[in-house]
Design brief:
Length: 204
């Protein structure tokens, strides 16, 4: 398998955490890429029309995207215990938490693009503030609604939530997400020590 890769992308990190947790990261060749919201990488677009990372090329040549689909695909490879629970309430909980984490990452990336990719004269403070609000409300949901789930298992939802909090530390160190969320902060401190998380710490 080949993965178009960016060391700073939280969505790429989520994919690689899943691969490491399942013991199949050695089957993935990382392909350097220059994904950008404006100047898109033609090499990625040859496989994914949106030009985004992560994009996975399976052994049979099939292109698989986006990160949610890639993670589920990787869950079907090999015989290790899966990160996607079987049909039933636990599966829906994991998938909803996964979606919440990805939505928070989308907001974080939009907030970042507003300050680093958009010309200063065209920036919209209210738009940026709206994205930051989504981050805070999702962190509160992790703390109030999801903490028991986070503390009790490792599944695709907890992986996604952990990666999303790691991205806040990486790109938004001043946002103070730990304030008022001591139990969540304690969970994340432990989760961040997992080998899969340490091996995928973002750079760039």
């Amino acid at each position: 398998m080949k993965l178009f890769f960016s060391p700073a992308s939280p969505f790429v990190r989520k994919v690689m955490v899943c691969a490491i947790e399942r013991g199949i990261d050695g089957q993935i060749e990382k392909l350097g890429s220059a994904a950008h919201p404006i100047n898109q990488d033609a090499a990625i677009k040859a496989h994914n029309p949106t030009g985004k990372v992560p994009t996975l090329v399976a052994d049979d040549g099939m292109a698989i995207y986006d990160s949610r689909v890639i993670c589920e695909y990787l869950d079907s490879v090999g015989a290790a215990p899966g990160l996607f629970p079987a049909a039933g309430p636990d599966r829906w909980k994991a998938l909803v938490l996964h979606s919440a984490a990805d939505e928070m990452l989308d907001a974080a990336l939009l907030a970042r693009y507003e300050t680093v990719a958009r010309p200063e004269a065209l920036r919209w403070a209210d738009w940026h503030g709206g994205q930051i609000t989504k981050i805070h409300t999702t962190v509160k949901a992790y703390s109030d609604e999801w903490i028991g789930h986070l503390e009790s298992r490792v599944d695709i939802g907890t992986v996604a939530a952990g990666v999303s909090l790691g991205y806040l530390d990486f790109r938004f160190p001043d946002i103070g997400w730990r304030n008022g969320h001591a139990r969540l902060a304690a969970w994340y401190a432990g989760f961040a020590e997992r080998p899969s998380m340490k091996a995928t710490a973002p750079v760039g």
